[in-house]
Amino acid sequence: MTDSRYLKRTIVKEEIASSYLGEKRSLRIYLPPGYNEVISYPVVYCQDGEEFFNFGRIATTANRLILEEDVDPFIIVGVEVDTSIRTAEYSPEGDRFEAYTSCFTEEIIPFVERNYPVRRTAQERILAGDSLGGSVSLHIAMKNRTLFSKIISLSGAYYEPSLKLIAAEQDLSYLSLYMIIGLQEDKFTNSFGTYNFVELNREAKKLLEERGAKVEYFEKDGQHLWGFWQKELPEALMYFLK
Q1: Residues 71 and 65: beta-carbon distance below 8 Å
Q2: Membrane-spanning regions, if any (predicted)?
């Protein structure tokens, strides 16, 4: 049975107006137990913010880690996305990719840092994402090495355009990644075709390590579903926050 303390979560909903996207973007912000505005906190920025909270149960997991596992309190910022244009924003070939990544670094982060006591160094910011959310997190970090150095990649969608961008880099020694891929993701079918996500993640890992990145990498039984990622989130968060 879930401890009732884990369910007493403080989640604030915010909305920002983005000049890059030409629209408003919603955020979900988790505040840890004992939240105090005079204390600064590490921060986890999640792509697919609504899914991380609803399907990944990240707020409940965070409460448990803080209350039971002696993890220092941290803030979570879930950046929501319209699924109908998700690929356009998260894929390097998408027509909204540059606008989204600029919104993320130049509008969302400054808004959070103006309004919440989050820490402001690359070592204290973590990017997290599933599938294309994992790969766009890496691309944001590669484009902004002074902002980010830590990435949680849950079954990252490292298609050919992403692999080419990684290969084009010379030095990624500032990056530290926690990568997990499900062994049953070897024939994942979406609207673009059927892909072997296991091989794509292995190739991404190889390219990253060749360029000096530190990669904590796991292959486990699992499918391309939140049921798999939800179970893996606690270890992924503890890797960077414990």
Answers
A1: yes
A2: none
Q: Indicate the SS3 state at residue 119.
A: coil
**pLDDT tens digits for range 87-103:** 999 999 999 999 999 99
Which conformational region is residue 34 in: left (phi greater than 0), alpha (psi within -120 to 50 degrees), or beta?
left
Q: Give the DSSP letter of residue 106.
A: I
Three-state DSSP class for residue 226: helix
Q: Which residues of 46-59 are buried (b: 16+ CB within 10 A; e: fewer)?
A: bbbbbbbbeebbbb
Closest of 147, 207, 145 to residue 179, by C-alpha = 207
CB atoms within 10 A of CB 193: 8
- The two structure tokens encoding residue 102: 């600029």
Domains annotated on the chain, with CATH: 4-241 (3.40.50.1820)
In three-state secondary structure terms, 156 is coil
Q: Quote the pTM value.
A: 0.95
User: What is the token pair recorded at 162?
Assistant: 């992403």
Question: What is the number of residues in the chain?
Answer: 242
Token pair of 20 as six digits: 């890059």
Q: Containing H/E element for 160? A: helix 160-168
Paired residues of 26 in beta bridges: 15
Under DSSP, the state recorded for 46 is: E
Burial class (CB in 10 A: 0-12, 13-18, 19+), 42: buried
CB atoms within 10 A of CB 213: 24
Q: How many whole angstroms separate alpha carbon 236 and alpha carbon 126? A: 11
For residue 72, the 8-state DSSP code is P
